[in-house]
Amino acid sequence: MNAFRRLTFSQKLNLSFAIILSISLLVGAIAFYQLSSLHKINQDLRNQWMPAIDTLRNITDNFDKYLTTEYAYIGAKDFRQKETLATKMEALRRNIQENERAFAQLQLAGEQESVFRVYRDTIQAFLTNSELILRLADNGKEDSSLTIRRSPERINLLEGTRRHLTKITKSCIKGGINSTIESDLSYRNALFFIGIFLGAAFLVGVFVSRTVSQDIRAQVGGEPARIAEIAQQVSLGTWR
Prior knowledge:
Blueprint: H1 2-6, H2 9-75, H3 79-105, H4 111-138, H5 142-149, H6 152-220, H7 224-236
């Protein structure tokens, strides 16, 4: 404090300006860093988590439709009906595969990646099993088709596929929620630190204002406005 008071008037102003400018630059740097962090989090939500959840939903919907169509194919007696159902199943298989490729291109790591690999192995085994069931149905062996469809192996493949799909979906939803929480935390941290440094800049400004005004009054012997008024009265010969 005493060292500051011993500075000249111009030195006090320059030092105060430098402190306030440094605080302003620090606030700007913090704001830029937090905005960059928020931008990255929003990109992850937009480019990874939301597309991942949407893709998994499409896979699940197509898988359920495939099961229904497969059962209808086994019970179909008309050739044209079977042909229509076969075309529909082929389209559903392609949709599942396209969505799988889209999910893989998202390049998710950790739990999502490992569970997705297991899921792809399971659904491939399921579709292979489905081809066997459909061939039997084509050969007029509907009873055998239904027997295999109800077998423990088939049920395990069905439950495994659904279980892995559910697990990946929950994991992606959790990842999206964590990103949202992280975004909110970054926003709160930005407000906290910006508030602190703006408060510090305000206190520095108040301190400098009081110190400089006191210094000016001490040097000129009073309030500058009053001194100017007296000087004017003296020059006019009206001062008493």
